[in-house]
């Protein structure tokens, strides 16, 4: 089936896909997805609120954590309308401008998350390897610059993608395999050569996620060298313990990404639902698990959240009295 193409892109549409063959169960399938989205929104907003309102958490490590929470929140909200729209209203049709806008935000925020994880590894490197200069190196102004540079780098690299896709005519099937728009999937529907999109996509991944992952690995190699030079076993354990939450966040981001890449490249024989589930794992598991990991493993965050809940509970008792 050919996509209804017009010189006015407003009239061209794609069709999103939920769980094929399980359309009658979309109402039930939406329940766990609603729970995941609500948990992501509540968890990340809680992290941001606690860091914003508690002056004792106004330190570089927590500023970067707030950036990660905001990025995860944005990534979650980028997919929420179309995913729940399909499950609740069978709203499969999406215009090309809306599709390209969603694509831009999903890919930009994914790259921002990679950059924020790199910034957090730099924070851990400075804190452990150069603790005396920690506050002078990671000043608030420098942290703001790091955050803005991460956002600008990601946005500028992803910005050409919608324009590269806009030049195509889509004469193949206009049905997408997911409940949201992704560059790799849309470009495969084009009639003409997609070599430019392929090359540029690989370039973007290499100079963002590729470089970030190498620098994260390097920072932890230097951290490990410094920690092993510490004489006290207790001090070594304490230093490494400050990195556990960040290591978990890195693994939660990169393992699903690698898994999804392997499934797309080598898993053509696998059932479609495997591809679908891996894409949801990649987009939803990191935003879901990061607040949980940091709430459990970071003592200061855990204590502040507990205090907030105790305060709310005491207010409710006071109002009852």
UniProtKB/TrEMBL annotation:
One of its GO terms (cellular component) is plasma membrane. Keywords: Cell membrane, G-protein coupled receptor, Membrane, Olfaction, Receptor, Sensory transduction, Transducer, Transmembrane, Transmembrane helix. Pfam families: 7tm_4 (PF13853). It is found in: Cell membrane; Membrane. It is a multi-pass membrane protein. It comes from the Eukaryota. One of its GO terms (biological process) is cellular response to lipid. The chain crosses the membrane at residues 28-51, 63-91, 103-122, 142-165, 202-223, 244-267, 273-294. Residues 43-294 form the G-protein coupled receptors family 1 profile domain. Its main location: membrane. GO terms for molecular function: G protein-coupled receptor activity; olfactory receptor activity. Belongs to the G-protein coupled receptor 1 family. This is Olfactory receptor. It comes from Heterocephalus glaber. The lineage of its organism: Eukaryota, Metazoa, Chordata, Craniata, Vertebrata.
